[in-house]
Each structure stands twice: as C-alpha cells, then as structure tokens.
Amino acid sequence: MYTIKELYSLEHSLAGDYLSQYEYPWQALSGIKEFIVSLGKTLDSSYEEVKENVWVHKSANVFESAYIGAPCIIGPETEVRHGAFIRGSALVGANCVVGNSVELKNVILFDNVQVPHYNYVGDSILGYKSHMGAGSITSNVKSDKKLVVIKTNSEQIETGLKKIGAMLGDYVEVGCNSVLNPGTIIGRCSNVYPTSCVRGVIPENSIFKNSGVVIQKD
To answer: Which residue ranges does the record assign to the Mannose-1-phosphate guanyltransferase C-terminal domain (predicted)?
Structure first.
C-alpha cells in the first residue's frame, strides 16, 4: 500500500527514473534538490532558465507576483498563480496548478496535480491527477520533533527522517481544510472528507471520513 510502485504511475513525471531507484517514496526526499539541479541541466530548449537553477517551460504561465526559489522546474502548461511561494527544491509537472498563497518546499508534483488555494505542501510527493482542496495542508514535522514513523495497522516503519509530509497516490482527492499529519500515505484513487485530520496509511480506493472511519469504495 505504500511503495512507490503501488502509489505512482512513474511515466507521468520527469522524476520517474529517479523515483524508480527507491522502494518507498520518503526515501527519495533527501535527494530532490540535487536531482532537480542535475535534471535541469539536461532539459531541452522548450525550457528557459529564468534564473540560476530555475527552469520554466515556455508554455507555463507564471504570474509576476509569484516567487520561485531555486532549484525548481515548472512543467509545460502549468499555471503558478498570484502570490504563490515556491521556496525551492520543487519539481512541478505538466498541466499543474499552483494557486494563490500556496507554498511548496522539497516536493515532487506529478503531472496534472492541483494545489490551487492556500495549501502548504512540504517534503511530500503528490501523484498524477491528485488534488488538494482549499486550505488543506501537509504537516511535515512532529510537534515533539522526533523522527517520523510510518504507521499501519500491523507495523511501524522507522524512516530515520525528521521531516516527512504526505505521499499522495495517483488520483487522490483531499477535502478542504484537511491536515495530513507527518508520514501520512494515501493510496491511489482515495478520497479524504473535508476538515479531516489524517495520519497513517490509507488504503487505495478508500474514503476517509471525518470521524477517522475508513471505508472501501464500491
């Protein structure tokens, strides 16, 4: 339920080959910065290096009020809207939306991902056509500052990392104003109800309800 192969269709990201080196998605987080720098230097002329280690596809629409920190790659037909704050180490795929007042840090967004309104996404990987509703955020550090543990019903996986946000599989829908706690993993085609507080591993094709009840889709 939580391996890279189970969560993501790797052909929908320029990071496909990079991610295929790992079994679990959180293992890829520490190398995102270096990967983006090396990938950017291989991009073709359809990308423009607008400043050092920031590559933007010529078909992308980046509002003047958006801030893009290095290193970063913005893919084709992607829109980065007013007041977006990309702190750096962000690979944003094709046909994505990075909306107003959205903050990204150390992330991979697959193609067709939407984070359109007031989202914080840090130390996370968002799969193909995943969507985070307005105000939903990833929490990437535990309040006690201890290392993040991935928790399932049957085991606890020590990651050795202090910062892990959320891993959203392909086609995941996160409802408005939800909080995804450190180390949350949501399987493909699952939905999270609005205003939810989510932690642990949510199986694919599931619905996570406000009460924490998880049901399988028909």
So the answer is: 71-185
Residue 1: what pLDDT? 78
Q: What pLDDT, on a 0 to 100 scale, did the predictor assign at position 133?
A: 98
Residue 109, domain extent:
4-216
**Neighbour-count burial of 23, counting CB atoms closer than 10 A to its CB (0-12 exposed, 13-18 middle, 19+ buried):** exposed
Q: What is the pTM of this model?
A: 0.96
By annotation, the residues acting in catalysis are 117
Torsion of CA 82, 74, 123, 86, to 10 degrees: -30
**Cβ of 15: how many Cβ atoms within 10 Å?**
22
Per-residue pLDDT tens digits for 155-214: 899 999 999 999 999 999 999 999 999 999 999 999 999 999 999 999 999 999 977 799
29-34 own/partner pairs: CB under 8 Å, 24+ apart? 29/106, 29/123, 29/125, 29/161, 29/163, 29/164, 30/161, 32/89, 32/91, 32/106, 32/107, 32/108, 33/71, 33/88, 33/89, 33/106
Both tokens of residue 211?
């009460």
Share of the chain above pLDDT 70, in %: 100
Contact present, 193 and 179 (Cβ < 8 Å): no
Both structure tokens of 41: 């230097």
The total number of structural domains that make up the chain: 1
Which amino acid is present at 68? I
Q: What is the DSSP letter of 163?
A: B
pLDDT of residue 212: 72
Question: 83: pLDDT confidence band, cut at 50, 70 and 90?
Answer: very high
Centroid of chain to Cα 9:
14
